[in-house]
Amino acid sequence: MGFWISSAATAAFAMASTAVVLTALILVEHAAPRGRHPLASRLKGAMFWSIYIPLSAVILAGLSALWRRLGVAPLATLPLSTWFSWAGPAGPLLSGLAVILATDFLNYGFHRIQHRLLWRFHAVHHAIGEMHAVGSYDHPADIVFGFALVAAPLSLVSFGAGSGGVVVQLLLAVHLKYVHASTRLHFGPLRRLLVDNAYHRIHHSLDPRHAGKNFGSITTIWDQVFGTAYFPAPDEWPRTGLAETDEPRSVREFLTLPFRLDPARRIAEAPGPAAAAKPAGT
Questions:
Q1: 260 in the Ramachandran plot: left (φ > 0), alpha (ψ -120 to 50) or beta?
Q2: At what angle do helices 165-178 and 91-116 cross, to 10 degrees?
Q3: Band (1; pLDDT cuts 50, 70, 90)
């Protein structure tokens, strides 16, 4: 019983916090819009989020409980607060930045793996043609892969006290939804370092010039290190989606899309030249 109570509490908190973040971003999209999106598209995205969040909460709670039962302890401790004590009041900030860089490195690698080996499931996210803050959902199975390839490895390292873990996770959750927002509000010159919505939209682009670019989720550092960075022009705002499939239109399509895709049609990291031939409005 405790497991289900914990899962329900986690799901309720996630639903509430997601609703607050998405509502704020919808207001931003209306205040500084980058295109218009029909209400039906926003309602559909909200419906998929309402399915994804509770399912993910149960899955994540189960995986976390199993991980704890296995008794896996951190293999190393990185006392960031001690390492950055020389910085005085700025020490916690630097510690938080170090955690962000470590998390972003794992997320970058995970994202590349999603495109290479887990494309069936990640395609649900990339199929979104009407991309905006609410239209940024993932398939629930992604939580399993993310736990195995990001959360579990991170749990093997303790960053010590003062690393700002809770604050960092909150900021990352907000940022993850912002980078999909359809708004003119962007980071400007800071885009050379931090991923914003214009930078990330290139990753979802149907334009073959953008194929296999911008895998970073927080910073552009790893894209630049591994040669996958593409910095968009000020007015560059490409169409998004996939050539081989439309975005899901119902709960059934949302949940079953990974099992209806032909993996032979898309194994590489990029949409490919065929994407350019996709008719407008599909």
A1: alpha
A2: 50
A3: very low
